[in-house]
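Weekly structure sync, notes
Attendees: PL (lead), two postdocs, one rotation student
Agenda item 3: pending single-chain targets
PL asked that the sequence for the first pending target be pasted directly into the notes so everyone works from the same version. It is reproduced below exactly as submitted, 273 residues in total.
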Amino acid sequence: MVFLVWRGGAWALDRMVYENPAFAMQQLDLQTDGILAADQLRSWAGIKGDENLLALDLARVKKNLERIPYIHAVSVERVLPHTLRIRVIEREPVLQIYAPRTRGGGSLTPPIVYHLDADACIMPPLEPRQRSIPPNPAAEQLPLLAGVKIPDLQPGNFLDVPQIKSALQLVLAFDRSQMAQFVDLKRIDASSSEVLVITTGQGAEITFGLADMDQQMRRWCQIYDMAQRTGKGINSLDLAVANNIPMRDVAASSLPPTPPKLPKTFRNKKKHV
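Predicted structure, written out during the meeting:
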């Protein structure tokens, strides 16, 4: 009798709950704060259109999405009787790094490009089919991080390297500063364990210490303003020195013109997809 009751309860539960068409998923309410395409997110989540909401393993869906390097956080919930709601927070790349690769015979091939977000998570660049909007190379250009040797770059891993963390802090401080309106950040040399040397799109070399990036950005902005008022441009500047900052200037007319700044388009407002 115990066996019959147990089997009968299981059959009733399947028929009335897990196989009940009244709880079939009819709508997927999926939102992301970035540019990942809805079809790509649905594929990564492993969701089929006719699944029963009560039988659907929400933990599995969440785990499927969280293992994708481009995704920072996910929330998944049922909205009975027919809706599955998914919210996605994407990682935003702030740096690019090259990984050399070799083929048979030791000959080098073009390097692999990876992106890093603010947490130093490694991401391959998005393919066009994975995006909800077409790429805009001019607006999505990222500074190149150079001078740091990483033996094994695997998508989804986090890099725990002091120079890389300092470089990421520098980029974030630059984006917050007024200097982002006037110059482009093209390259960061992190080969030294004591300083970072950036190269701007206007050809200037600026040396930063590894601490207090916001203060160094403010000093750079003040010196830039003073140079502009005297008709000069900055050729090199060492902000790692606390006093008597070394600077080499040039005539402003000898510098390449500053192209109009394009707004970054990778991170958009939240989209309902």
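Discussion points:
- Residues 10-18, 266-273 have pLDDT under 50 and may be disordered.
- The longest helix spans residues 2-18.
Action: rotation student to compare against the earlier draft before next sync.
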